[in-house]
Design goal:
By secondary structure, the chain is an alpha+beta fold. Helices cover about 15% and strands about 45% of the residues. The protein has two domains: about 5-85, Beta Barrel (Thrombin, subunit H); about 90-195, Thrombin, subunit H (Beta Barrel). The strands form two sheets. A six-stranded antiparallel beta barrel has the order 1-2-3-6-5-4. A six-stranded antiparallel beta barrel has the order 8-9-10-13-12-11. The protein is elongated and about 55 Å long. The two termini are about 35 Å apart.
Length: about 200
């Protein structure tokens, strides 16, 4: 979601700079800020959320720099922070626009603390519903490995666990490369064409 929210970035040596959030997801943010932090640095963020939702305070890792600012990765948001951010991330809109197809593929989901095996229930170019041996935790950043039946071998994608219930979990793919996005879209389209 593109947003103009005020933000304060504190570097590891305690220096504070102000800026604004220009893009947000459950896994991270892009900020327009004039800071000399480097990729790999840990920073503390204090962001004023819109609609009187209060402030978000979180530690994140700088994962990219460009002339427009910095990109940060939250890792796993604390549950209270995930709830605050989730209210402003319109993932439902992405999922609504991306066609899904029911497909049963083996999948392995690796989180910060454990790895679990499972199966896809459905798949789109932006996410999947999965069932897993171990219940996944909403808000966690995970790595999902699966093999679309397109002859190109296994693929591994980063994803956020968007929700989890008795039917399984919804994974929303994060920072897909153009190649992976096109590959998934082509695979999903090929399955839809057979229906």
């Amino acid at each position: 979601m593109t947003v103009p929210w005020p933000a304060i970035v504190q570097s590891s040596d305690g220096r504070l700079v102000t800026g604004e959030v220009i893009d947000v997801s459950l896994s991270g943010m892009k900020l327009r800020v004039n800071s000399d932090v480097a990729v790999g640095d840990a920073v503390k963020l204090r962001v004023t959320l819109p609609r009187d939702a209060g402030e978000l305070e979180v530690t994140a890792e700088v994962v990219r720099r460009d002339p427009g600012g910095i990109g940060v990765d939250f890792g796993t948001l604390p549950p209270d922070a995930a709830v605050k951010v989730k209210a402003f991330v319109p993932t439902w809109d992405l999922r609504r626009r991306a066609e899904r197809v029911g497909v049963d593929l083996p999948i392995q989901v690796q989180g910060h603390e454990a790895t679990t095996k499972g199966r896809t229930v459905d798949l789109s170019a932006v996410g999947a519903r999965v069932t897993t041996e171990t219940r996944l935790t909403p808000g966690d950043m995970v790595a999902a490995t699966f093999t679309p039946k397109d002859g190109q071998g296994a693929m591994q994608v980063r994803a956020v666990v968007w929700e989890a219930d008795a039917r399984g979990a919804v994974l929303v793919f994060a920072s897909l490369s153009l190649h992976d996005f096109v590959r998934l879209r082509s695979f999903v389209d090929s399955l839809l064409a057979r229906k």
